[in-house]
Amino acid sequence: MSLLVVGTVAFDAIETPFGKTDKIVGGAASYIALAASYFNRDIHLVSVIGDDFPADFLNTLKKEGVNLDGLQIKAGEKSFFWSGKYHNDLNTRDTLDTQLNVLANFDPIVPEGAKECEFLMLGNLVPAVQQSVINQMNKRPKLIVLDTMNFWMDIAMDDLKKTIAMVDVLTINDSEARQLSGEYSLVKAAQKILQMGPTTLIIKKGEHGALLFNKEEVFFAPALPLEDVYDPTGAGDSFAGGFIGYLAKTKDISFENMKRAIIFGSAMASFTVERFGTERLIGLTQENVEKRVQEFVDLVQFDIAVF
Amino acid sequence: MSLLVVGTVAFDAIETPFGKTDKIVGGAASYIALAASYFNRDIHLVSVIGDDFPADFLNTLKKEGVNLDGLQIKAGEKSFFWSGKYHNDLNTRDTLDTQLNVLANFDPIVPEGAKECEFLMLGNLVPAVQQSVINQMNKRPKLIVLDTMNFWMDIAMDDLKKTIAMVDVLTINDSEARQLSGEYSLVKAAQKILQMGPTTLIIKKGEHGALLFNKEEVFFAPALPLEDVYDPTGAGDSFAGGFIGYLAKTKDISFENMKRAIIFGSAMASFTVERFGTERLIGLTQENVEKRVQEFVDLVQFDIAVF
Lengths: 307, 307
Description:
nine-stranded mixed sheet, five-stranded mixed sheet, homodimer
């Protein structure tokens, strides 16, 4: 089924204990679209860039089945740029530079061909911009997934809560779940957040995996223990892209199928962190992905018949 | 099969965000023995207490199948005492007071009846004391599990490494695995530690679950997301007790069976943290435990047949 992805397409400059990049392609929507494209080739992108963006990457997106009609290219302007340095634990980072550029006045326009999409993935952006996209759809999508972050909780909580009330699935990390709910226990936090509108909540815990909640059930997907994590940037977006890409492919939004989707999302994130930027997500083969998913199965599979 | 448990039987005074206790019964061996006794009633305890210890608790241990012939009771001396205060996240704590008392000169004596035990659980203690117990056994046990902590890495690393080289399974937490190996990646840390002697390594990650490694395989057991954690004290020891208790009961030390054992260990830990001290471990029914283990199965079980 068709999938609309909204979010940033941007430049990053990243420093980790393993190395340093110059300006490379990043942005939430880049990771989401590439991860989803492994599962689904009917993807529309809504975003904005300057005229400084490499045609190569746009061609890669097109080749992977991503329709760029909704990608605004602003002549004479620069693309969004973020620069950050990760600490040794790779779980925390300092932002070194943020240049909003084209993002400062981003007014998303959903092209006619994308207004009927059945799946909508709202990558991290100003909550009002995310809302505007929902309002432009011709009919309510079958599933809306929203990703956001603590930054919007700090400066635009009211707007954010309105947007959260409009979606089906919210994905945030553990500290954001605590901030949004005011509860330290993630179980209690989930119960409170599920009162705010979404029927499903995903709490991302980075190297500690992810929790999937609805009002009655909970599922835990581990992260794969990796020898080396080169660059965590985009892990959460790749996770979201794999999650919604798998759901859009299988057209099944039951909790049981979301469990599978979250494993595929985790697999996509595990690829992303093995290289800088989006590199590892491009050209993944079925064998790559099946082998990786089998590692997740082996990691948590046990047989408790001997009781 | 028979199990020998070595470790502290002591007093704790604990403060958590949920409350505060006066002096209550604690100690690694208390938690280990109680958790193991759910599975196995052929348990010997080697430890030391003063004459200030409540007979009630000793009777409880006996009732649960724990033989106390190896428990030294020092007349006119006081039992080991620890007092600590947990921070709001319950993952970190400050030690408020430590009184070694009887532990200062503890010379463990394994009674004749315990020298043939096939399973040996060495709870956290001075590494030289742990070694002394191994050396007193008539024959090498089928399985020796060692628990230790960063404190011994700081002040007795050489002794600790000698002890580690003598055991089959080492259980430590993630930061201790990093300290012992000098590697940040837990996968690399595990590989290095498995060169030090043990065939199996368990890395405990508290609320984030536990990893089980041998040289070829890895298994991840989640922690159960709980609404309230009242008191994390003894969680790691209950985990170890459940783990070795299940192995001693089933007499199977294969990696496959260790996966089951780690789930039962995690279940025991999940009970312990629901109350202060050892309270919740006493009198667990089969129904309690089976229901809890089923929650672990439900938490991580997924069916990836739809590929």
